[in-house]
Write a structure and sequence with these properties.
By secondary structure, the protein is mainly beta. The protein has one domain: Sortase (Sortase, Chain: A, Beta Barrel). Helix content is about 5%, strand content about 40%. It is built from 1 helix and 12 strands. It is globular.
């Protein structure tokens, strides 16, 4: 397989890490609106270390039978403002390709839109329905399917420390799904909560 990027992100943010900033990106709010105010005025730098070979394929589809998801996987990196970029399609999910591949040791991250646009639902509108023990599957570009099982769901306040979503050092493989939920605030242009579903490779 081709090289996989393992990225260390060094961030100059007051009281936050870039991992936290990723979760606050508007992709985790509404697919209709865009706002990166939480990063304005802060300097962000990114360091890409030595690339390593991976025996894990690139993800192409995410399947979650319990909530009727069978989605193409887009690849995203960092946006110009230093946050995790967003999927182009309301129907697709986005894998953070500068992080771990699903199935590699560490935490891989996939995000999806929440909310409606022109009366159409978004891919992760029902993510909150997943429960401990539910299964999901990643198919890679070689046709290999890797299964994951839900460990827990957590809800974060927009200002909470959530660096554990992107980082783990237990030597195991995790896939974390992120979106948002709660009440839309017109003043701040964001939802009131962030939802993260933590899963472990079977």
């Amino acid at each position: 397989m081709g090289p996989s990027k393992r990225t260390l992100v060094i961030v100059a943010l007051t009281g936050f890490t870039l991992f936290l900033a990723f979760i606050f990106r508007d992709i985790l709010k509404s697919p209709i609106r865009s706002n990166s105010a939480l990063l304005r005025g802060h300097a962000v730098s990114v360091t890409v270390p030595i690339q390593e070979q991976s025996n894990v394929g690139l993800p192409v589809r995410l399947k979650i039978p319990g909530i009727n998801i069978d989605s193409a996987v887009e690849y995203v990196g960092l946006a110009a403002d230093g946050t995790m970029d967003i999927p182009k399609s309301q129907d697709n999910v986005a894998w953070f390709e500068t992080g771990q591949r699903p199935g590699e040791n560490g935490s891989s991250v996939i995000a999806g839109h929440y909310g409606s646009k022109n009366g159409k639902a978004s891919i992760f509108d029902n993510l909150h329905k997943l429960r401990k023990g539910d299964k999901l599957y990643i198919e890679d570009d070689a046709g290999v399917v890797t299964s994951f099982v839900v460990r827990e769901s957590r809800r974060y306040d927009p200002k909470a420390n959530a660096s554990d979503v992107f980082d783990s050092n237990d030597g195991k493989s995790h896939l974390n799904l992120i979106t948002c939920e709660g009440v839309w605030d017109e003043r701040t242009q964001q939802y009131s909560k962030r939802l993260v579903v933590f899963t472990d490779k079977e």
